[in-house]
Amino acid sequence: MRSLFFFSLFWLSLNDSVKATKVFQNLFINRGTLTTIKNTTFPFLAFNATSTFTAENVVVSCLKNDTLIITVTNNDTTLHGFKIKNYSGISYTINPAANITCTLFPTQRSIYTFYDHLAYPRNMYMGLAGMIAVKDKANDKVYYWNLKEHFTVFNQQLGYGLNWNNYYPDYFTINGKSYSQLQLDPKVKINNQVNDTIYIYVANTGQSMHSLHFHGFHPKAVYSDSKLIKQNWIKDTWGMFSMDCVVLRMIPDKTGKYSVHDHNLVAVTGGNTHPNGMFTIMQINP
Ligand SMILES: [Cu+2]
């Protein structure tokens, strides 16, 4: 009887320790305008945390083994979709003013991209694609880079009647921003100390390939859903197809300032001006 009592206590505490934390996230599909680094503007869509439009998709983040509950509200006037890449069973269409709720059970450090899969790739091209970043520990040092390119003419047509053979992007962004705005985004600009362990969550939600080159360091892929990138590869340039995701781990061994940029140098421009594109400078302190 006594041993049964102690067993019950043990069982209760075991259940308690594995009880998942519930993380709630609201997403709103909003329509608005992206203002480029050169102050030109074009129509854009995004998944935002409130019904107020910003030209940056929310990063949804949680810890592994959390229960993630996402509610998506369509704040636009047209039908939209919500799908999560590599997570089966989550695929919805959402009427204007309606909402859906879905639940995920992520079990490892990883990235899932969520996007509007209707009229693919039009709605996604117009901006509706973001990332769910699953962290290992609450105090992980993390950065989130959502890569994307834009062709002003296509956005002005609201993505309708496009011929992708005539796709010549003229703006290249991370989280909807370009250099030098990127130096002010704490989700992008790496600012750490020597020997810190840094995790960079990268998703390419554009239509083009992007190839990130790290100066000074060779990060390691600790998670990849890309055909091009194997887990545990260590290298300095990371080519990523559209919708590829990778989590890179970097442990800087020296101080200084180092560039990271898209190795296709056109992607380091914005409206033909260099270096107004996919480019940021890392700061490693003693
Ligand atoms: Cu380079």
Summed up:
The chain is mainly β and 286 residues long. It has three helices and 19 strands.
Reconstruct the topology from this structure.
Layout: H1 2-18, E1 22-35, E2 41-48, E3 59-63, E4 67-74, E5 80-84, E6 91-94, E7 99-104, E8 110-115, H2 122-125, E9 129-135, E10 141-150, H3 152-156, E11 171-174, E12 191-193, E13 198-204, E14 210-214, E15 220-224, E16 237-240, E17 245-250, E18 256-262, E19 279-285
Parallel strand pairs: 1-4, 3-9, 10-13, 12-19
Antiparallel strand pairs: 1-2, 4-7, 5-6, 5-8, 8-9, 10-11, 13-17, 14-16, 14-18, 15-17, 18-19
Bound molecules: copper (II) ion.
Strand order of the largest sheet: 3-9-8-5-6
CATH topology grouping: Immunoglobulin-like
Rg over CA atoms, rounded to whole Å, is 20 Å
Can you write the helix and strand succession as a string?
HEEEEEEEEHEEHEEEEEEEEE
| N/C terminus separation | 60 Å
Low-confidence stretches: 9-13
Please give the CATH class: Mainly Beta
Total count of helical runs of at least 4 residues: 3
Q: Biggest sheet: strands, sense, closure?
A: 5 strands, mixed
SS-based structural class?
mainly beta
Which CATH-level-2 architecture? Answer: Sandwich
The molecules bound to the chains, other than polymers, are: copper (II) ion
